[in-house]
Write a structure and sequence with these properties.
Layout (H helix, E strand, L loop, with lengths): L2 H19 L4 H4 L11 E4 L3 E5 L8 E6 L3 E7 L5 E6 L2 E6 L3 E4 L12
Antiparallel strand pairs: 1-4, 1-7, 2-3, 4-5, 5-6
Amino acid sequence: MLRRPFLIVFLAVFAFSFLTLGSVPASAAAPTATSTTTAPSATVLAYRLHLRESPAASAKSLQLLNLRSVLSVLGRNTAGTWLKVQFGSQIGWVRATFVRLTGVKRLLDLPIVS
């Protein structure tokens, strides 16, 4: 006996919600998303890591980075093997395998830069 009134109330509430959702403006119905993403960064995992002028092991070394240095990531090369980074006022390239990325889910989600 208790099940029948519950079912009727449930169906009434469901029907009321279904009918009234169509009358709510889309801007009021959808919550606005706030952006809480942080800029991608990289932490140096090597004892000493070269910050290079271009994405090549033979490129001129601009600076030696220490273990646990934090770099701002600007992008990656096409293959995803090198990252263009900024450390202080210096901009250069580091090998992606020697850093840990934060602020991005996958390395390939970074923009390709030259």
